[in-house]
Amino acid sequence: MVTVFLASGHRDSELPAAFHSGRGEPGDMEVAAVADLIDRRGGRAWAVARNLKPMRLAAERLQKADPPPGLYDDLLAAGARYLA
Q1: pTM of the entire predicted model
Q2: How far apart are CA 67 and CA 84, in angstroms?
Q3: 23 — phi, psi (to 5°)?
Q4: Position 28 confidence tier, pLDDT thresholds 50, 70, 90
């Protein structure tokens, strides 16, 4: 998603481009600003949409494997956190 945004040529892509070409470790404020910008430009929505089908397939296959109920619930909750 970041690569798509950087390659888009959108005027807001300058901040993430500078962020990725910088040297050293970025500060917390820089990371937050870039994450917010990518989110506002649809990056989170794109990533969620892109991963829903594989997550559903994984959940179906996991359920068919008949794991202990607690393990199944924990794994689904962990995956859901990344898609929220």
Answers
A1: 0.52
A2: 24
A3: -110, 150
A4: confident
